[in-house]
Design goal:
Cyclin A, domain 1; Oxidized Rhodanese, domain 1; 3 domains; five-stranded parallel β-sheet; elongated; TBC1 domain family member 23
Length: about 550
């Protein structure tokens, strides 16, 4: 029995006990009241307030707010007028309206003074829409305030990075749709999702749908889940959105903002299941590093924002992944489920840096070739994509749908890496990410746990630039190192696979006239040079010689 069932059963027993004391025992139909969370069902209406309190962690410890009922805010008239409008929507009897209006204004005024002293109330800040479903529960004023305050504190985002975050998720999961928004000059989802996040969809959906969404959302106990709910709404409407290609920007924004309005009560279960799927198909570190920054209290949020670079999200080229998550995958990739996030790692550092230490599952792609030898670069990219398909097909440790790029970790050097990533994004390839902090972060993480020799292949501390504390220099890295070998370690791959990675690295530095033949030979038969090695993944398909990069902007 899960928490949801236990809680509702306890409430059911408590209610029955109270009734028995008055009327004697009577039958109760649990099927009508118990709605297990794992079945994606809403909470029974009778128990909704108590169940919400449990998941909001305020059950039994609600604070006793002393309402001053002094209505002296500069924006008091605006607040009062908005309260009048919400009372009309509630449909109370005329004799109740005055009392309800008084409670609403008192709750919002108290919240403004105690929880938002530096941010005045405005009609479009989402408070009134967020409060409406809570007021509709018809609880006492004190309970209404506590529920509203808890929902706002735990589930309403604190920073504008929320909109960059959703933009990156759309780019990651549906690059074609992301490209459409860019062509319409909609560079931030802020213009059409602001009220979604401010009101948890209460501004767009009818009350029945809002309750169903909130029931499941609170059961998740994960504030970040709203990003995946928003993502599903957008991605599910992609055909409708593409049909707006000839409409002006304003019309597109208006249509996008109204997307949640189409949700019906029966859609909510599938809606949340799809959101869980996208959650599962997104790198964990993206969510965990941002959640505390976006949702915790202001003091904690500022602390976490200072730990992370403040431009971490707003200036991200694509979805960032932490070095820790990449290393965990490298160590345990064979244990990952097939439908989970599996990385195909592309190391974009110069050949000399790569050959002085790299992760065992990393393919090498020298990003400088994009400008120096574009033909060789295009052929190398095609080769890597062929390797990716073959690795996925054979279930290789290095195979994965999620393409993850690794740069140096130096801003100047990683400009080349960013150009490579941009070329993949231009092709609207799904699941593109970039390791935040690059190889420097990977190296530091391994060093902290004394795993440099086990975690890296061919690590040469005498030449490794991170070990030497030096900044990379392009000028001295035009000659590749000898063929890559594999150390005996928990991270190590097969010898044939290691040879494959080394050969690709060497081939990309060859003359463009020779690179096609070398790559085709390596990818078609990666183990040909070592007949005694265990077989690695190979591709039976012919490499497409058409350059994949049409232009470099």
């Amino acid at each position: 029995m899960n928490l949801m069932q236990e809680l509702e059963l306890a409430l059911q027993e408590e209610k029955q006990g109270a009734e028995d004391s008055l009327t004697g025992p009577g039958p109760i139909d649990l099927e009508d009241n118990v709605s297990p969370a794992n079945a994606h069902q809403s909470i029974a209406e009778t128990f909704r307030p108590e169940v919400w309190k449990k998941y909001l962690d305020i059950s039994g410890k609600e604070s006793r707010v002393i309402f001053s009922d002094i209505y002296d805010l500069p924006e008091q008239n605006e607040l009062r007028n908005d309260c009048k409008q919400i009372v009309e929507k509630l449909g109370n009897d005329d004799e109740d309206k005055v009392s309800v209006l008084s409670d609403l204004e008192s709750i919002l005024t108290q919240f403004r003074k105690t929880r938002s002293p530096s941010r005045p109330y405005t009609t479009d800040n989402g408070w009134i829409e967020l409060l409406f479903p809570v007021v509709a529960l018809k609880l006492p004023k004190q309970e209404t305030y506590n529920l509203f305050e808890a929902i706002h504190r735990r589930y309403i985002v604190r920073h504008n990075d929320v909109f960059h975050t959703l933009t990156l998720l759309i780019l990651y999961h549906d690059p074609a749709l992301s490209n459409f928004l860019v062509t319409k000059k909609i560079t931030s989802t802020h213009v059409f999702t602001k009220t979604w996040f401010q009101s948890l969809f209460a501004a767009q959906c009818n009350l029945e749908v809002v309750y169903a969404i909130w029931d499941l959302y609170f059961q998740q106990e994960d504030p970040f889940f709203i990003f995946f709910l928003a993502l599903v709404i957008i991605v599910n409407a992609r055909d409708q959105i593409f049909a707006l290609k000839d409409e002006p920007k304003d019309k597109v924004i208006e249509a996008l903002s109204l997307l949640p309005c189409g949700l019906e009560r029966d859609d909510v279960s599938d809606f949340c299941s799809l959101a869980q799927y996208y959650d599962y198909k997104t790198p964990r570190s993206f969510k965990t590093e941002l959640k505390s920054c976006l949702f915790e209290n202001e003091a904690t949020s500022l602390l976490n924002t200072s730990i992370l670079d403040k431009t971490f999200i707003s200036q991200a080229l694509c979805l960032p992944v932490s070095a820790e998550e990449l290393l965990h995958y490298t160590r345990h990739s064979l244990d990952y489920r097939e439908d989970s996030v599996r990385f195909f790692l592309i190391d974009c550092r110069p050949a000399l840096q790569y050959n002085n230490g790299h992760l065992p599952t990393a393919f090498h792609l020298d990003s400088s070739l994009m400008l120096q030898e574009p033909t060789a670069f295009a052929t190398a990219v095609q080769g890597l994509l062929s390797c990716q398909r073959a690795a996925i097909k054979q279930g290789s440790q290095a195979g994965g749908e999620h393409v993850c790029f690794l740069g140096c970790g130096q801003l100047e050097e990683d400009q080349y890496t960013h150009m490579v990533v941009s070329s993949f994004l231009q092709r609207q390839i799904q699941f593109i990410s970039l390791v935040r902090g690059g190889y420097q972060s990977v190296h530091s993480c391994l060093e902290e746990c004394n795993s440099l020799d086990d975690g890296l292949v061919d690590h040469n501390s005498a030449e490794c630039l991170v070990c030497l504390g030096s900044s990379p220099s392009r000028g001295s890295e035009t000659t590749p190192s000898p063929s890559v070998t594999t150390p005996s370690s928990p991270f190590a791959r097969s010898h044939s696979s290691s040879d494959l990675f080394g050969k690709i690295g060497a081939a990309m530095k060859s003359k463009s006239a020779e690179v096609k033949e070398k790559l085709i030979e390596i990818i078609s038969s990666p183990s040909s040079a070592n007949a005694n090695s265990s077989p690695s993944f190979k591709s039976n398909s012919t490499v497409n010689r058409k350059p994949i990069i049409a232009s470099v902007s």
